[in-house]
Amino acid sequence: MLSQENGQTRLRSCLASLASVPFLLGLIAGCAEEVSEPGEETASEPKRIELAYVTNGIDPFWNIAAAGVRAAAADFDVDCEILMPPKGLVDQQRMIEAQIANGVQGIAVSPIDAENQVGFLNDIARTTNLITQDSDAPKSDRICFVGMNNYTAGRQAGTLVKEAMPEGGSVMIFVGRLEQLNAQQRRQGLIDELLDRPEQTLEDLKIDPQGAEIEGEKYTILGTRTDNFDYPKAKSNAEDTIAAFDDLGCMVGLFAYNPPMCLEAIKNAGKIGEIKVVGFDEQDATLQGIIDGTVYGTISQQPYKYGYESVRILTGLAKGDKSVLPEGGYLEISSIVVRKDNVETFWAELKELQSE
Fold it and tell me: Among 347, 197, 326, which residue's Cα sits nearest to residue 284?
């Protein structure tokens, strides 16, 4: 039997222990709030926005766009992975599917085959914020398009051909692939300008067939040669054209690498000065050719802005801010016509952008 004194001592001890229980429970609860499982976000550390910028292939053109992507990712404090599919359509779709599996919050893509990718793009659009850049897929559920008016740019290239060959002549067109909507629009703009046709709208654009020769009063379009982003094939297309047409007056390259390939073929054939070159984009060899007088001019899309604006828009959408969307779902990036009189200034500004 416990003595009265011992009993009181035990009672005081128990009460003291019970009194400490709320404190201990509070301490445990506080620790539980501060400690989280590995990989689990806390209230003070929200998940970073993760985006993807997907090109239609590998080319120095896309390196300029990538510089814009990196600049915007830094400015808006987001992560954006840059993906350049080396093997075309299947590779592009595989890369996009992997990004969806990773839970990416937005994708900017240059569709390789807009007409036949609609179903795939719609599936992606149901899962994340999807925009197109460089080349559009207007029949899909993409939210908006960032890029230049490729039909207008094609007509600008046609104006350069007219300046280079004011007396008229024969023209061959070179391009990577015609499945891309931007390639179709550029080509048609070029043809319409050379044949002095009325301006068309993008919504009702009528496309001339690829294989047929198209003859106007002063200019004849001999045809269109595609290479599927195969550089050796692009060069051999140019070489074969020079060999086949003695009266070839001008070679027009619609993708960034086409003008340099044409220029190499002309040099190898010993026809520098005899055959004019007009192109698109801003590869070093093209810009140097304009300075040297071996390329007449080129149309720049300003790809840096493609990258920067795509990330800006996707960041806003990921935050629920729809005010970033352009009116009508189209953010037009103005093209720049580069000739001998502005090429050095243009190139200097381009280098500065890429060095940032």
Answer: 347
| Alpha carbon distance 86, 162 (integer Å) | 35
pTM: 0.84
The residues, ordered by sequence, that sit 6+ positions from 136 with a Cβ below 8 Å of its Cβ are 111, 114, 142, 145, 147, 181, 182
Same structural domain, 327 and 284:
no
In a domain, 354, yes or no: no
Structure tokens at 146: 């960032």
Mean pLDDT by groups of 10 residues along the chain of 356 residues: 42 42 41 43 72 96 97 98 96 98 98 96 98 97 98 98 98 97 98 98 94 94 97 98 97 98 98 97 97 98 97 98 97 98 97 88
How many domains, the chain?
2
Q: Which domain holds residue 245?
A: 150-300
Q: Are 296 and 338 in contact (CB under 8 A)?
A: no
DSSP output for 99-141: HHHTT-SEEEE--S-TTTSHHHHHHHHTTSEEEEESS--TTS-
Sign of CA dihedral 300, 226, 140, 314: negative
